[in-house]
Amino acid sequence: MRRRDFIVLSGSAAVWPIAARAQQKRLYRIGVLSQDLQPGLLETFRDELQKRGYVEGADITIELRDADGQNERLPALADELLKLKVDIIVAVNTPAVHAAKKATNAIPVVMMRVADPVRSGLVASLSHPGGNVTGLTNQSSDLLEKKLQVLLEVVPGARRVAMLVSGPGKLRDDTIARARAMASSRGIALQVVEATTAPALDEAFAAMKRERAEALLVADTGGGVFFTERARLTELALAHRVPAMFANAELVEAGGLMAYAPDSVENYRRAAVFIDRILRGAKPADIPVEQPTKFELAVNMKTARALNIAFPPALLLRVDRRIE
What we know:
Layout: H1 3-23, E1 28-34, H2 39-51, E2 60-66, H3 74-83, E3 88-92, H4 94-103, E4 109-114, E5 133-137, H5 143-154, E6 160-165, H6 170-185, E7 189-194, H7 198-210, E8 215-218, H8 225-228, H9 230-239, E9 244-246, H10 249-253, E10 258-262, H11 264-279, E11 295-300, H12 301-306, H13 313-316, E12 321-323
Parallel strand pairs: 1-2, 1-3, 3-4, 4-5, 6-7, 6-8, 8-9, 9-10, 11-12
Antiparallel strand pairs: 10-11
Helix pairs in contact: 2-11, 3-4, 7-9
């Protein structure tokens, strides 16, 4: 081989590994920050990412941080994700989204299970989020009215209804105002009770008992305690023998009587779609927040029997999830 040819070949060999490395895919780190992680639903998220061509370990890696119901841990867990240099944070439930937003204004945050991100101060508007946060909201204009309607189908003679709320803020105040108007139009006395901590739940049910509440509407006002304390909340409702409409199907699985809420599986699936769009170059500020389009009515038949409640046949025909 001529010396000139050797030099050219040697140069090509030296350059090739650099070019090959340049063509390699980037491994994206996705952080999941959760108030109370649901492993089954997380698999839906993983499956949807896989359907969109992302192989875990090759294209993406998922870093899980779960506060296990202890909201005070969320800021430290968010900081842990930042130290891992994650590319995106998926934040589940309102307290987790607030922790992620406070930790960073640069890393994209995809929110899930947030009652009202505008009134909660997380985005500027649903159509133009305007910052590093976008994703999905549980907000729906007629959701509260639908919950009350179904509750009254199950307890048609109820004239004293309690509504359980959590946390101060515009969302809480607006929810109470709308609920009062709906109750008034139906000739119902509405008792508003608040619980922001686990011990306060006992006090709230004691107050309902004093006012002889005949039914209970649990409102999602972003406090988070109802979800993390779902076992205790459903136990208290059963112990006080008050038929209750809960904020999501997970509380029905925990023993609650019923829930009408956005489809949790669809929520996690759509979160993966947001991840895909952002990894392909879309900016969170420009991606509209999605409102739910799929809802599910869940009922717990064992709890119904314990409360001596017979669901109307017409309602049972509309049930999406029936827990025996």
